[in-house]
Amino acid sequence: IIDRGYVKVNTKKGRSLVPTNLGMALGRAYCEIDSELILPKVRSYIEKSCDAIAKGKVTFKSVVDHVLKTFKQKFEFYSEQFAL
Q: Whole-model pTM?
């Protein structure tokens, strides 16, 4: 996200990421299209899934398959909604 210009590293007070104008615009666009794309629950799901993989409770493939299925459904839905 740094290399793509979505955020900059702020080292004035510790170390934090600060969104750039591009990052803010992308976030607003995601909110308008599908707010689930930026909600903490998405990140939380990914973190919990990684933990479950590490503990051997689920497989990497099952997590990737689930995520791909979810995003494929979103893609197909929005492709129909915004078809030219």
A: 0.58
